[in-house]
Amino acid sequence: MPSVLPDGEPMPEDGALPPHALAGAAERPLGFYLHVPYCATRCGYCDFNTYTATELRGSGGALASRDNYADTLVEEVRLARKVLGDDRREVRTVFVGGGTPTLLAAGDLVRMLGAIRDEFGIADDAEITTEANPESVNPAYLEELRAGGFNRVSFGMQSAKQHVLKILDRTHTPGRPEVCVAEARAAGFEHVNLDLIYGTPGESDADWQASLDAAIGAGPDHVSAYALIVEEGTQLARRIRRGEVPMTDDDVHADRYLMTESALSAAGFEWYEVSNWATSADARCLHNELYWRGADWWGAGPGAHSHVGGVRWWNVKHPGAYAQALGEGRSPGAGREVLPAEDRRVERILLELRLADGCPLSLLAPAGLAAAEQALDEGLLAGKPFAAGRAVLTLRGRLLADAVVRDLVD
Q1: Antiparallel, parallel or unpaired: β 390-391 and 359-360
Q2: What 3-state DSSP class applies to 39?
């Protein structure tokens, strides 16, 4: 969850949605995102809405404590039931993110999931994921999550090299994420993801290859690999500005991406979104696909964003303010926006073009269609899908995805 909230119109105190938001809801999947904003330490590159114990001390008091956080979040799930009224959709995906969700007791995560089951029902084939820090779980913890209904876990590996982890301020021991994959498999998890970051200052090609080899060797069925983005206001940005560490350039990012595609495809993974690879269709992250395809999701927790039927809203950031609002029977929503048709069209292009099956050419305005034809000529879009009416990125197009998207949304 980003740390900066957008502007928007005020959120009704009861969280009520415009009537049109639920029109046709039965035809759209419904998911839940549960945000756990706590971290043991702050990573130097992190710009998410997270808090360490030191940052919360004296700020929000007991309301901001993680000890009763699960109870507070359950109250928002109950609010969601009231707001969505007679919407009888079962939940298809649940994703618990952070922060570090596994700083909470496993029983707390299971209880939060149980509230969704009690209020909405969860589909038999639902995907239920939690993120996890490798140092914050053990076999017993993973077994409790699995018994409680979780069937997918995503470990933050980032790198296999100690000096790279140190630059990122990651505290886990190299090799621990790979052990976690084995522990998750032993606990009965069907699907396991490893998150990687490339382009860290001081990382070499050999370092990145070692990270890819270690991740593949661990045996996950999904890998996410992201270029490091240095966000203003982070500790890493300050270190780069002071000249303590070098900034990685775009050419290095491109080279690392090509290394990633080569290694993962050789190991039986296929890309299905620019930064995500899976060993099969069943191994894809269904929850993220729900975002990318503009379905409905309720984001519970401080700073969490939601979207239902073209209405997007976001919660207050601070855990204390979040708990206070729910304790007083108010929506924790800080603001919302009703997306005009043109904004929804543009967002579809922005998100769907990143997918392996691309976006329909019918979404493009005349200028965007002309840009697509030029991108086709330049080898950025694939020919056969284009002839069938879809804009699909080639490997070279993936390297320049942001630029291609900018041209196509004109």
Answers
A1: antiparallel
A2: coil
Number of H helices, E strands in the chain: 16, 14
| pTM of structure | 0.94
Angle at 343 between CA 98 and CA 5, to 5 degrees: 35
Closest by CA position to 354, among listed 393, 407, 409 = 393
- C-alpha span between 226 and 311 (Å, rounded): 28
Q: Which of 176, 392, 165, 156 is nearest to 273 (CA)?
A: 392
* Measured CA distances, 295 to 29, 91, 97, 188, 344 (Å): 6, 12, 19, 29, 12
Condensed to tens digits (0 to 9), the pLDDT of residues 323-353 reads 999 999 999 999 999 999 999 999 999 999 9
> What are the Cα distances from residue 10, in Å, to 1, 73, 333, 339?
20, 21, 8, 15
Dist. CA 296–CA 80, nearest whole Å? 12
83 forms bridges with which residues in the sheet? none
Give residue 335's Cα distance to chain centre. 21
Distances (CA, A) of 149 to 82, 112, 127, 129, 138: 24, 11, 10, 9, 17
- Looking at residue 45, what is its pLDDT? 61
Strands 91-98 and 122-132: parallel
Task: Report yes or no: 292 and 351 within 8 Å, Cβ to Cβ.
Answer: yes
Q: Calculate mean pLDDT across residues 356-361.
A: 98
Strands 30-36 and 270-273: unpaired
Mean pLDDT for 190-213 is: 96
